[in-house]
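Below is just one:
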Amino acid sequence: MNIDKVCIHGEWSSRLGFILAATGSAVGLGNIWKFPYMAGEYGGGAFVIIYLVCVALMGLPVMMAEVLLGKRGRCSPINTMRTLAEEVGASKLWQFLGWAGVIAGFLILSYYSVIAGWTLAYIPEVASGTFSAVTTMPETEVMGFVGSIFNNLTGNPLALIFWHTVFIVVTLIMLLGGVQGGLERAVRFMMPALFLLLLVLVGYAMSTPKFMEGVHFMFNVDFHKFFYPKGDQFSGDGLLAAMGQAFFSLSLGMGAIMVYGAYLPKHASIIQTTAVVVVADTLVAILAGLIIFPIVFSNGLEANAGVGLVFKTLPIAFGQMPFGSLVGALFFLLLALAAWSSAISLLEPAIAWLVETGKFTRFSATISSAVAVWLVGFATVFSFNLLADFKPLFDKTLFEQIDYLTSNIMLPLGGLLIAVFVAWMMKRQIITEELELSTDSFGFQLLQFLLRYVTPLGVTLVFLNAIGVFS
C-alpha cells in the first residue's frame, strides 16, 4: 500500500499551484536567449523537432521520476532519498543524490543571482532612453558604445553587489511565506505576468517588418545544417545540444523539482502535471525566439549568441525602434521575472532541509540560506572585475569553475542517478501507486524502458560531451 506521508512544510493548494511553480522553476534566462539561438544555429525547425523528441524521451521521464521521488518522500531531497533508500532496502549512500541536488541548486543560485542582477540594472538603463543615443552615432561607434555600458556594469563590483543584493532580498521575501503564502503566492503572480509580457512582446514583434524572417530563422527545417553546422563535415553537436537543452531547461537534477513534488497534493496526477509543465516550458522558449529575432533582424543586426545577444545586440535594437525604451524595459522585466521564478526553486531545497533538522524555523532557515548564497555570490561578482585574472584551476575564473562543476557534472549525474534509482531500485508497486498506472499498462512499460535504457544513454552522452570526451 502507498505510505501516506504528510509534508511538514505544507502543500500546494491545488494542481495549478504546482504547475505554475514547476514551470517557473524550469523557465529561466536560458529559455529566453539560449534556446532560440541554438535553434537558428542548428537548422531551425530541425533543431526544434529533435529537441521535442529529446524532451519526450529524456526530459519528461526524468521529470516524472523526480516528482515521483518528491511526492513519495514528502521531505527535502536529502531526507527524501534517505527514507526512500530505506524503504526499498537500498544503500544509505543514495542520500548523497539529495545532497548533490541541494548543493548544486545553492551554487547555481550564487551566480544566477549575479547574472539576474544585470537584467535588473538594465531595466532603468533602457527605460531612461540611454540606448536611443545610437540613432545619432556613426555605425562604427555603436557597438563600442553599447559594449562600454555592459563592461562598465560588470567591471564595477559595487554595482554588481547592489543588484545581486536586490535580487536576493526579493527572493528571500518571496520564500519567507512558506509553500502557499510565499512560493505559491509568488508564482501565481509571476507566471501569468511572464506569459502576459511574452504575448505583448510577441504582438510587438509581429508589427516589425522582419517578423516572417524571424519565423523562418526559427522554424525552417534544415537537417543538413543540423548535422553539418560547420560546412561539409558531419557533426553530432546538434543532437548533443538538443539533448542537453532538453535536460537542463527543465531544472532537473538540482533538487528543485523533487522538493516541489514533495508539496504536490496527494491526488494530483504526476503524469498530467509534468506534461503540462514541459509544454509550458517549451512554449516560453519558442515565444522568446519569436520576440528576439524579428526585432534583431528588423534593425539590421546579427543574432549573436548568449550574453552578447541580450546585453549588447538587443539594446541597440531597442535604441533604434519606435517605443524602444518601453519595449526594452518590458523585455528585461520579463527576464527578471523568469529569473526570480527559478531562484525561489533553487533555494527551497536547502531551506526545507534546514527546517527538517529541527534547529531552524522557516524564518531563520530562509535568512540563513539567503545570506549564505549571497556571500558565495561574491566569487562570481569579483570574477568579472577584481579577480578576473585569478584562474586557480583549468584556466577558469571562480564563476566559470562553479558554472562548469554544476552544469557539466552535478546536474547530468543527478539526472542519471534519478533515472537509475526509480527504474532499477524502486519496486514496481511503488511506481505504479504514485503514477496511478498498472504494471502491465503500455504507459508504465514505456516509462520503465525510457528510464532504464534511453534516458541513461542520452544523459551519459550529454555528460561525456560536456566534459570534452567528444571534442
Observations:
- The mean pLDDT is 90.
- The CA atoms of residues 184 and 216 lie 38 Å apart.
- The chain has one domain: 15-407.
- The two ends are 49 Å apart (CA to CA).
